[in-house]
Q: What sequence folds into this?
């Protein structure tokens, strides 16, 4: 079996997730390479421990770069703290006005508050960065490599978190608006209201794409081991509650049945888990990837993985 359907025109966002060390980054890059043969593709890492550079053996960073040795592949490592910093700097005056008009904090307190990271806000900003790229429309496909399960789930639930913050801010503003209206008889919307409205739109945009299975696909990566299977189960259950349905999964590191004694024994050990995966996820297209002799590093090795993921077939338009 090969990963299927990624060529569908509506499908923009492909997110890889799973337990630590199961092959998310390798599969995300290999998939992006396959897509880039026929689609303008952007590979995005949201993992704070970025490994695109290591895996591709070329520098990738917070600024978008073309991946050397490929035609149509660009890549970026989204640093959540940097994304948040950029947002605060771009909107500092408005954020200050929000706090000045809605709280009793003095100037110094406000400046200090703006340097603090609100829990979850960095993930929101990571996702906002992805959505901004998608809306800019420079690329046809966006492939996201995430950090292990917990982080991917926080990323997915980030619009809900941002929505909560907007609600709190809007409630704080309501008192200010009430006061202005009582004094002057009317209230004109200002730049703070405009910022809250634009953030609310961001939430809606993220929710819209995540909840639309034709535009967004989540591909879990698993290996035939007990803990990875349990974690994949939890991941898929949580995704389901967010309205995200997986259609297929990668089963990585599958040993060959023949060869040396060690390989045969390892494969025998994997068999019950492979059976469990096949029974538990019979509704998913399961793509088995062999355990390679060497690590997957550099374009040549990644192309080998790409050929396995797509059974040597290019992703055509
Ligand atoms: N099929 C495979 N055969 C051999 N080695 C593999 C295979 N898949 C992945 N690897 C190797 O396993 C290691 C982990 O892979 P990778 O970095 O892709 O996993 P990850 O899920 O992204 O890890 P993390 O959770 O740390 O981000 C890497 O050294 C990679 O080269
Ligand atoms: Mg990784």
A:
């Amino acid at each position: 079996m090969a990963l299927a359907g990624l060529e569908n025109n509506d499908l923009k966002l492909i997110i890889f997730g799973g337990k630590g060390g199961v092959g998310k980054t390798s599969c995300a890059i290999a998939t992006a390479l396959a897509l880039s043969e026929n689609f303008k593709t952007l590979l995005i890492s949201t993992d704070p421990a970025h490994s695109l550079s290591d895996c591709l053996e070329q520098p990738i960073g917070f600024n978008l770069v073309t991946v050397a040795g490929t035609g149509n592949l660009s890549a970026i490592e989204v640093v959540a703290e940097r994304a948040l910093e950029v947002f605060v700097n771009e909107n500092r005056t408005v954020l200050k006005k929000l706090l000045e008009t809605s709280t009793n904090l003095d100037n110094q307190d406000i400046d200090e508050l703006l340097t603090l990271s609100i829990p979850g806000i960095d993930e929101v900003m990571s996702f906002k960065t992805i959505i901004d790229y998608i809306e800019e429309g420079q690329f046809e496909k966006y492939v996201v490599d995430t950090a292990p399960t917990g982080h991917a789930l926080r990323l997915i639930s980030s619009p809900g978190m941002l929505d909560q913050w907007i609600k709190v801010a809007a409630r704080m503003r309501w008192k200010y608006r009430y006061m202005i209206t009582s004094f002057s008889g009317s209230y004109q919307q200002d730049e703070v209201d405009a910022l809250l409205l634009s953030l609310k739109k961001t939430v809606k945009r993220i929710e819209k794409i995540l909840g639309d299975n034709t535009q967004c696909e989540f591909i879990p990566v698993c290996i035939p081991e007990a803990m990875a299977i349990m974690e994949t189960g939890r991941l898929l259950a949580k995704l389901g509650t967010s309205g995200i349905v997986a259609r297929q999964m990668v089963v990585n590191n599958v040993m060959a049945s023949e060869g040396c004694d060690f390989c045969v024994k390892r494969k025998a050990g994997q068999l019950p888990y492979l059976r469990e995966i096949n029974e538990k996820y019979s509704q998913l297209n399961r793509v088995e990837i062999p355990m390679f002799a060497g690590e997957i590093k550099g374009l040549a090795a990644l192309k080998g993985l790409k050929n396995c993921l797509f059974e040597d077939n290019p992703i055509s338009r």
